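User: Fold this, then the next.

Assistant: Folding the first:
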Amino acid sequence: MSIQPRPALLALSIAAASLAGCAKDTGEYPSLERRPIERAGAIGAPTPPPPPAPLSPELPARLDALAAQARAAHARFVDQLPAARRRIREGSRAPIGSDAWGDAQVALASLESARSQTMLPLADLDLLLTERAAQELARDVMRIVATRDMVASLVAEEDAALDALGPPRA
């Protein structure tokens, strides 16, 4: 009867022999004592951050122009709103395809067009905000955000007015 070595036992023996070479003690381990730099503590007071960059010279004029553009578009929207409400109310009672219904659809489209004119400066402000944030110009970003918030509130007011008119009929 011959004894056959088992494959698992053979593999385990080879692995143990190869790992024994990794456990060789050379006595060259790093010391766990504190190094001089660790004993010294803080080298000095932290340097303060640099002062924020000055506001870009062209930015205030550009923001004023975008705000004025948004206010003008919003004023046109507000001016159109009473007549549009009346035409839409009359058209909602009229049969689809009638002149009153068509007038209501035109009035609604005109209001939505006026709203889109208010959205244009908002899109420009978003682009400007992205550019200045990428350049890490904090003062510019704060100014842009303030103007953007004002224009966004105008758009929200217009959205609320359009929502109050009710869903459009096809």
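Now the next one, as you asked:
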Amino acid sequence: MNKIMKLDLQNGGTLSELWSLQHKAYRLEAEIIGFHEIPPLMETRDMLSRSEELFYGSFDDHGDLMGAVAVLEESPGKLTVTRMMVNPDFFRQGVAGKLLEYIFDLYQDMEQFIVSTGKLNVPAVTLYTKHGFIPAGVEEVAPGVELIEFHRNGRL
């Protein structure tokens, strides 16, 4: 049974584990969408430690970090899922879905949840659609690279 908990980025071990996970996960997304300047890949450990986002990690029975999600309330009542990452060793085991459900439960008073991903990142698009997100817009962030933004009403 996996456990989800808030991550303390001031803990050096936790920070290193999260940074490593972030690079594994976002390198794969970069390959999928053909864009290697994804902001999390440019981030140093120090930059990550100063993030204003709140991070939650999913751990297996051995204490290994299977995945993590980060959120930020950028305006009242609206929570943005700023990062979603799963260790490739744990792909297709429901880790990302459990992290999303955890966020929905934890932040049940939110009016809206927002998330973005590369339009070509089919696994992520499928995940968000499955969990009630609806496409809200597409933005070209680099030549031939489109981000799709999804919204999900809160208090469902």
